[in-house]
Write a structure and sequence with these properties.
Length: about 140
């Protein structure tokens, strides 16, 4: 925070330095950006960036069907939001575990890299689901 304050142009800092620090701060706040930055910093080997856990697409299709069938039922929407939040939290924990277990010095192992991508893709799906649920709740309130 001190670096951000001193880098701010109003404090006589460099605009490019302030922008770089702001980008770094935003990456720290966002688990997907943070994971991507850590993959790069840890010299992660190539991996299938679209990989999903076995059965995950079926699970998401079933959640989508439940959402479509909810028809604005607040108790079902609340249940789906809780499930989405659990999925998001679990994905973040899986990503952290993959980084910790794949610690091989300065380079991430191929297996750990694969598991990080799995977690990132699950997290992305969970975030999209929660966004759709929030939009749906807003539409039903109108």
């Amino acid at each position: 925070m001190r670096r951000v304050a001193t880098a701010h142009p109003d404090a006589g800092g460099d605009v490019a330095d302030a922008a770089r620090l702001n980008d770094a701060y935003q990456a720290l706040l966002d688990p997907l950006l943070r994971s991507a930055a850590l993959l790069q910093a840890r010299h992660a080997p190539p991996s299938d960036e679209r990989a999903l856990p076995a059965g995950f697409l079926l699970e998401m299709m079933e959640l989508r069907e439940r959402l479509d069938a909810a028809c604005g039922d607040e108790s079902v929407l609340r249940e789906l939001k809780e499930e989405g939040a659990r999925l998001k939290d679990s994905a973040i924990a899986d990503i952290a575990r993959a980084f910790n277990e794949g610690d091989n010095g300065s380079v991430l192992t191929p297996d750990a890299t694969h598991h990080v991508w799995l977690g990132m893709n699950v997290l992305r799906a969970a975030q999209r689901m929660l966004e759709q649920l929030d939009r749906g709740a807003g539409e039903s309130a109108r």
